[in-house]
UniProtKB/TrEMBL annotation, chain B:
Gene3D superfamilies, alphabetized: MetI-like
GO BP term (any one): transmembrane transport
Major localization listed first in the record, in broad terms: membrane
Organism in which the protein naturally occurs: Marinobacter nauticus
Protein location: Cell inner membrane; Cell membrane
Protein's UniProt name: Spermidine/putrescine transport system permease protein PotC
Bilayer disposition of the protein: Multi-pass membrane protein
TM spans (from-to): 12-29, 63-85, 97-121, 127-148, 175-196, 229-252
Residues of the ABC transmembrane type-1 domain: 59-247
Amino acid sequence: MRSLTQQPFRAAVLVLVWGWLLFLVLTPNLLVVGASVMTRDPGSFISLPLTLDAYRQLLDPLYLEVFLHSLYMAAMTTLVCLLIGYPFAWALSKVGKRNQVLLIFLLIVPFWTNSLVRTYALKLILATNGLLNNGLMSLGVIDGPMQLLYTEGAVIIGLVYLLLPFMILPLYSVFEDLREDYLRASHDLGAGRLSTFIHVIVPLTLPGVLAGIMLVLLPAMGLFFVPDILGGSRNLLVGNVIKNQFLDARNWPFGAAASILLTLAMAFLMFAHRLSKRRIGEDGV
Amino acid sequence: MNRWLPRTYLTLVYLLLYVPIVVLVVFSFNDSRTGYEWGGLSLRWYEALLNNRAMVQAMWNSLWLALSAATVSTLIGALTALALHRYRFRGKKVLNGMLFVVMMSPEIVLAISLLALFLLVGLQLGYVSLLLAHVTFCLPFVVITVMARLSGFDERLPEAARDLGANDFTMTRTVLIPVIMPALLAGWLLGFTLSLDDVVVSTFVSGPSYEILPLRIYSMVRVGLKPEVNALGTLLLVFSLVMLILSQWILLRSKR
Amino acid sequence: MKQTLLSLSNLTKQFDGKKVLDSLDLDIFDGEFITLLGPSGCGKTTLLRMMAGFEHPDDGTIALGDQDLTHTPPEHRPLNTVFQNYALFPHMSVFDNVAYGLKMEKRPKQEIRERVEDALAMVQLEDFARRKPHQLSGGQQQRVAIARAVVKRPKVLLLDEPLSALDYKLRRTMQVELKRLQRELGITFVFVTHDQEEALSMSDRVVVLKDGLIQQLGTPREVYERPANLFTARFVGETNFFPGRVDKANGDDTITVDVFGLKRTFRKPDFPVSGGQSLHVLLRPEDIRVLAPDDEDGVAGKIVERNYKGSTLDSVIHLEDGTEVLASEFFDEDDPTFDYRLGEPVKVSWVDGWEWLLPTEPEALPEEEGTDA
């Protein structure tokens, strides 16, 4: 099978792939790490000497507040996605096979639709004189328009809207693997609905929950265009800060340090996910 | 109750998911200028869109970028998947891990790191930088799609072909590629859509010489309402829908 | 009369430092049905894959007649394989699967069509030519795999556990079918299996393999009745091992052996024996006679298990010293004493001359089962 004629092909493929990843993934990431410990320079973006100023700046109350607020919004987004997505995935896994294919399809259609355009559509609904306010006013529920747009709530709604499928899909896949026998066995052994849920369903679906959190929480801190369109200037994400530092304020070390913060968060979540999978005896990816 | 509660719930969530899209489509045919009131049926925003030369140019640019990024990432991704599947080599786990990290990392982290690289090596920001960036974030998705197909692939098939007289090249052409074709197409379509939809990475690595659609939309929707966006969104929706149906059809057909 | 077709000599192969084949020599005759039999990890699959060209020996040669095949790639070897899970190309019709090998030979279209149709007729699948593999049953897929391999008229057909995925009944049918095909085609079959029953019923010769070494090479009858060593005796069929001690060697090519205190006279074995030496007396369950407890012949014991098997009645008997004896007797409805109850005392005996003697072997340390390479 490993005949000589294959060796050049094999070598070429490996060189190409390794080359691509080393040049366009590893090197750039090392550059970011490097940039984060250098000094800000208006001309060439960064310069020596090495310093930890950028990381110190992360702790500046002004930015710390932005980060914590971003983390709060991301956490809320994740929580809302989980609260909507968990029962949703469960219900979805119970639907007949034929309908399931169609429903999954309907779930990913929005995902294949331009996310900017979808965020913009939310704006049509949430604006002061948008559909929601107009509708509620004509129904007499409210007297005057509510301020929905440019609020924290609007940003969370936008993020939930964009990221919900990423929560549902991993959850759906663990519910699909959740065999009815386990539940029957649990009932058979005398467990009620609640204790079956706590002792069987939750642990077995935990990897899906963590995968969902991983897929929602991180983008929820990075999708800078959502606050740009829906949130106004007071509801910024870590992503907005990074973008501003790189493209407007030209403070690369600080932007780099902020992005390393996100990377660390990712590493932590990946680790947790692996752990949860190993607990139920599946190989972590 | 046991049957109706889940169904009602599913319906409700789908409704919420689709309301904005329906609003968008309906308003794209709205004659009103203000954007919030219904002013009668009209195709004026589609007309305005097609008369906007910069917009049409951005559309073509985006399309070309997505085509080329999807094609390049499918080529490299398929070869990577094959290498991971067939060969034993040192650092295989590292390679796998790197692809996984690229897939999981927040886009913005990838974006700034690529910007740093391009500026360091002095690459003019434009089509080439966009292409390199888009291929990089599409790559893991293609690899995963093709790997999934290969993992269900009977190891004996290439051997059977060799046994019956095919050399390595003929075997690849007549057995390997036809069998993984659905995955290649699915991977390509996924790459195409990811590229067409990307805002975050493109914001950092594009230059004035090559304006692409998402960035043009971005600059339009940041302030106020632009009814043309409704029309554009509807067009994009129809386009993605066609692509999605196509890819699902291919995958379903191949499973039989 | 028996002409060597495929000659394997000194084949050696290591995987990750573990010897899978150890200086193996084997001559395969023209037109025979030879079976490689052994437990998983014994090297039988590696050996077959080496003949096909998918593995390369670290040392040794493979020759077909006077043509050295050792370094010939699989596509240039006049041998074809029927794979374990058939390996039918899922994207091609049955016809295209069978035609694949002929297309590789660049045969004219007309000839390809005729030969494919013939091959499909031979396996009774002429009406299925346009189906895709997944539309066929397991047995039908198996036939396509065979047709695809034999349509190229190979010198040797290699079969890698081809029946293992089929259910018992279908397996029996396919065994008969394969035998018929082999006779009709006159092609040499090299068959790999871990199922000793299959090996015995189908083959002209059986190669018993363990740890990359040939344990025994012979006809099914030789392998079953005259196992070369304890491994073969244990692996092929059920066997009772009775401890024996040579009492004395008689002048007339017989020896007297003490078995459970009984003095029995056996034919002298082909290994050297001397007085006082320990040896194994092997008796197949069907060679054992279960007698009434008052019979003067035999060793006393009691019945601990009775299994009705349709045509035979299988018993497990515990002798007084704790030895467990398996007996398998054909029904004799006229014999009133035939059936015994559990716990009933009986005597166990056998007809002298049906035994087989093997020398004691130093017990090998139990080894981890390797993966089937």
